[in-house]
From TrEMBL:
Pfam family, one: HTH_31
Domain HTH cro/C1-type: 15-70
GO molecular function terms attached to this record: DNA binding
Name the record gives this protein: XRE family transcriptional regulator
InterPro entries attached to this UniProt entry: Cro/C1-type_HTH, Lambda_DNA-bd_dom_sf
Amino acid sequence: MKIELIDSHDIGVAVRAARKAQRLRQDDAAGSIGVSESFLGKVEKGAESVHWGKLFRVLEGLGVRVSVDIPDDAAALFAGEEQKRYARVERAEKRKAARERADE
């Protein structure tokens, strides 16, 4: 089911619904995902200041997928920025591997 998210509270409702649909208690869900129960509670309440990486870990852990619908004229710019990001990640991984080989 696709729903439109307007604000952080909408994300919280989606997370809570996904957790309850799986019949998971908040503490059990948090433990299996690898976040604190406090953090999961903040997400479910729609707190506006949560760590993005942990938020996406919660979403993935509960099977919630997020997509964005961007204007057509932004699609090419998005693709270019995405390519740049992947290139930066690849360079960083190569540098890390080289450092690890040098440390051996």
